[in-house]
Each structure stands twice: as structure tokens, then as C-alpha cells.
Design a protein that fits this description.
Blueprint: H1 3-19, E1 25-33, H2 35-52, E2 55-58, H3 62-72, E3 90-105, E4 111-125, E5 131-144, H4 151-177, E6 181-188, E7 191-194, E8 207-216, E9 219-233, E10 238-244, E11 254-258, E12 266-276, E13 280-290, E14 295-306, E15 310-321, E16 327-341, E17 350-366, E18 369-384, E19 392-402
Parallel strand pairs: 1-2, 1-3
Antiparallel strand pairs: 3-4, 4-5, 6-7, 6-11, 7-10, 8-9, 8-11, 9-10, 12-13, 12-19, 13-14, 14-15, 15-16, 16-17, 17-18, 18-19
């Protein structure tokens, strides 16, 4: 092998090492306040950040902590302390200002506990000593006492819920400030290869959008559209799946950018009305979601009225939904419980169980609005009371608000 080839291989090897270098943001986390509670918040926050893998964490130093507290309280001038001597990019300073536990009881003797945490955090740029963000965060948790849950367990569970809410809020704020962007290397069908991976903090399940770069004179602008999810991650690359295609064409100027506001689940809020072929009418309110891969699930309320007693149904639905261009064919089944009530009496215990296979089609008018057509058959079996089962076909027409 020639010296020239050896030199090229060496350069390539060094380049790979450089590009695979860990470029994640390094955080130094401090907490202050109620000793036990603040320590638990700090522990949960570190645990969550390490699970994500987006950031590196370093251990804190008590002397530095005291100095940071003195600077933030105004006792010491920040110019007298060199933040940039720390081995971190940013300091996350979390303070638990107040915490309250309340025991609640209603007129029927039901007992529950509420726990509220008043917190605040500051994000400090170590290099410039600049405070990038100051924010107050109020977290709340609630848990019921039952025959299976003691009052002590309810108190602790309410506190854990509040801590979890506080930690989730902190992580969300940091993720919004430190968005990861990457270049597209290759596109094949609905899969995209990008030039960033664990080295910058990308993890499996992270959500991205497409970003189209515009340059007007000396200013740079980005147009955000579409939805992607990270399926595979390596040291310095990742494979993303396109869930929603962008309206603009993919080319060399397109990048991907992290978008913490996106979800891998597409939500549906549907309103529909129809006719049951036993002289009854129905109205449905349904909330559901699908994973863009065909699996859909949800819950709903049906109100039925007409020839006999008025009926109320509630249950959950399982569906196969797959978008093809602007059409979404649907094949599913509803499992539900129905109860009838008289016009001149209070709620009755007339109850039935039912199953309803159905098929339908949705036409998307826009990305967030569609018209639905659905038909099927209701099979019911009375369980209690004077319930007249509905065993009949139906048809529904409605609208779908997607989000």
C-alpha cells in the first residue's frame, strides 16, 4: 500500500473521530429550597435528563453552589467569579420556593390529597455569565384515598405527581431552548438519513420537523413544516421516519430541526350524526388518536333517541386507519355499554353490553379538517333492567378536527 493511500486512510479515520465527538450540551444542576423536596426534584431531573441522553451532566461542587447562590441573590458581583472556569456549558438552577399539602373531603366522604409546589428556575450561560431564562413553574398533584390506597400512600403519590409535573416542565423548557438541527444526507421512501446522532444528543423517539432555509440579504429565516420521528440512532447519524410530509419540496437546502411540541400520535376530535335502521337517530362525540402506521384507538359518547327510550352509550374503539393521499379508509370495532332512561323518570339501571363492527372513509379537506362517512352494525345484549337491545345497522356522517 502506497504512502498516499495510508495518508488518505489516516485522514479519513481522524475525520470520523472528530465528527463523532460528543457535542452535547453539558449541564451543571443545582437546587435550593426545602431540603428533602428540592433534593428529590434534583434527583428526578437528573434521572430524566440521563434517560433522554440529550445532555451531559457533571457533578456539582458545594463551594461553587454557595458562590452561585450569592451571585443570584445579589450579595456578590458576578464579575468577581469566573463562570467559564466550570466544566459545563450551562448551569440549571432550580429553586423550590414553597410547597403545600391539602387534605380534601367531599359531602359523600370521599377523601383525596392535593400537593402543590411553587418552583422557579434559571438557566445561566457559563461562558458569558448571562441568565438566558428565568421562569416560575407551579406544579400540582392529586391522589384519591380508596380501600386499596391508604392516606399515607395518597399523600406520597400526590407529591410524586407534583414533582413529576415540575420535572417535565423543566425538561420541556430546556428542550425548547436547545433545539437540535441536522443536515439530510439521503432520502429513501419515507426514511431519512441525517448527519447527527448521539454525539449531539439525539435519541430514539425524538420528534423533528423539516426546516426550509431562506436568506434575505444578510438575514436567515426558517420555514417549519412536516413531522418526523427518530427510529434508529448511531454515534454520528440517525434514521428518521417521515410521518407527515412537508408542503415544500425536499432539496439540499432542507434541514431537520427538533420540535418538542410534536407528538408521534395524531389526535382526532370527531362530531357525527346519523340514523339507526330501527327508527332511531344518533349523535356521537369521539376523541381518538392514531400512530400514522395504521393503529387507531379512542373513546366516545353516543346519544340515541327516536321511537322508544333515549339511550346513552360509552365505550372505546379500535381502528385500522391508513392515510392514502387525502383519503383515510377506516376499519374498526366499538366495544361499549348502553343505558336507557325514561323521559319522565330519573336515571334508570337499564344496562346492555354491545359490540359494533364498522367501516368508513374520511376525506381530508385540509391537514387539520376532514369529513367522515361511517356505517356498521350494533349487536347488543341486555344485562339488567328493562332494556330493549338495539340490533340494527346504522350510518353516520360527521367532521373530524385533526391535531
Amino acid at each position: 500500500m502506497s504512502i498516499k493511500k495510508l495518508f488518505l486512510i489516516l485522514i479519513l479515520f481522524i475525520s470520523v473521530l472528530i465528527y463523532a465527538e460528543d457535542s452535547r450540551k453539558t449541564l451543571l444542576i443545582y437546587s435550593k429550597g426545602y431540603s428533602t423536596l428540592s433534593a428529590k426534584v434534583e434527583h428526578k431531573l437528573k434521572e430524566r435528563l440521563l434517560e433522554m441522553g440529550k445532555y451531559r451532566l457533571i457533578e456539582r461542587d458545594l463551594n461553587v453552589l454557595r458562590e452561585v447562590e450569592r451571585i443570584l441573590s445579589g450579595v456578590t458581583n458576578k464579575n468577581d467569579f469566573k463562570f467559564n472556569q466550570l466544566a459545563a456549558d450551562y448551569i440549571v438552577y432550580v429553586e423550590v420556593i414553597d410547597a403545600n399539602l391539602r387534605r380534601k373531603e367531599d359531602d359523600e366522604g370521599n377523601v383525596w390529597y392535593e400537593y402543590e409546589i411553587e418552583g422557579a428556575y434559571r438557566l445561566i450561560d457559563v461562558e458569558t455569565s448571562q441568565i438566558l431564562e428565568i421562569r416560575s413553574i407551579n406544579a400540582f398533584g392529586s391522589y384519591n384515598v380508596t380501600k386499596f390506597v391508604s392516606e399515607y400512600e395518597a399523600r406520597e403519590n400526590a407529591k410524586d405527581q407534583a414533582i413529576e409535573y415540575l420535572v417535565n416542565s423543566l425538561v420541556y423548557r430546556m428542550n425548547k431552548l436547545f433545539l437540535i438541527s441536522a443536515n439530510i444526507i439521503n432520502v429513501e421512501n419515507d426514511m431519512i438519513l441525517i448527519d447527527a446522532g448521539r454525539n449531539v444528543g439525539i435519541y430514539k423517539g425524538m420528534m423533528f420537523s423539516f426546516a426550509k432555509i431562506y436568506k434575505i440579504k444578510e438575514d436567515t429565516y426558517r420555514k417549519i413544516d412536516g413531522k418526523l420521528i427518530v427510529r434508529e440512532v448511531s454515534g454520528n447519524s440517525a434514521i428518521l421516519e417521515i410521518l407527515v410530509k412537508p408542503k415544500f419540496e425536499l432539496n439540499q437546502t432542507i434541514q431537520v430541526i427538533e420540535n418538542p411540541d410534536l407528538s408521534p400520535i395524531r389526535g382526532h376530535l370527531m362530531f357525527s350524526g346519523g340514523y339507526i335502521f330501527n327508527d332511531n337517530y344518533l349523535f356521537r362525540l369521539e376523541f381518538s388518536g392514531d400512530n400514522y402506521k395504521g393503529f387507531g384507538f379512542g373513546t366516545y359518547l353516543d346519544f340515541i333517541w327516536g321511537s322508544k327510550k333515549s339511550i346513552f352509550s360509552t365505550g372505546f374503539s379500535l381502528n385500522y386507519v391508513k392515510e392514502i393521499n387525502r383519503f383515510i379508509p377506516q376499519l374498526g370495532v366499538d366495544l361499549y355499554m348502553s343505558s336507557s332512561f325514561e323521559y319522565d323518570t330519573e336515571y334508570s339501571t337499564n344496562v346492555a353490553l354491545g359490540i359494533s363492527p364498522n367501516i368508513g372513509l374520511e376525506i381530508l379537506i385540509t391537514d387539520n379538517f376532514g369529513i367522515t362517512l361511517n356505517g356498521g352494525y350494533r349487536f347488543e345484549n341486555a344485562l339488567e333492567g328493562d332494556y330493549d337491545p338495539i340490533n340494527s345497522a346504522f350510518i353516520r356522517v360527521g367532521i373530524d378536527i385533526l391535531f
